[in-house]
Hints:
This protein is mainly β.
Amino acid sequence: MGDRSSYEVRLRSFEGERVNRVVYFDCRYEVENGVFTTDVVPFHRLCFGLELHTWTGRILGLIWGSEFAQYGLDLFEETIGTQLDGAGSQSWDVSENEAWTNIIGQSIVSIEVYWSWYANNVTDEQIKNPDNIPDGLKRHYPQDIVISFDPDTKVYIAASIYLAESDMLFPSADEITVIFDKTVAQKYRIGPFAANETNSEDE
């Protein structure tokens, strides 16, 4: 099981780093530019994850995984391609995608982790009143991450899958969602807008 404090320290060590390249890891589709973005939803959807490369040569890699729970956001400081060998993945450099062009060259000002949790062996009454679930039964995991470049430029990354029939993002899923707009993050309850998530400042 992962260590929350160590995870946040590693992640926040990227604050001050300047992004010079972004790579997506998606399913191996027979198309030139991937299908991570469509006109149907106002965000990017990835089968596996993404990497932010910095000017100092560091890599901030995020994929869905089970370091803390199945599934949360696993953090790698090396190419995540090695983690996906044989998984039917394909990579795309999306640095010139319109969602990323204004971010390339900017420095990361802050990174916030939003933790969610689940609990096994709880009673029906505790399910109805989750505040009554003892902390010892809760298993926390990093559900969402918000990377801020300036007050008006934030990237919301979630281990969530889109359910079209209900127009919602289902959390703790084996897919990665990338959102670039605060109003979209609010609508789909990502990060600071999710009811049952906390960051370190809340605890």
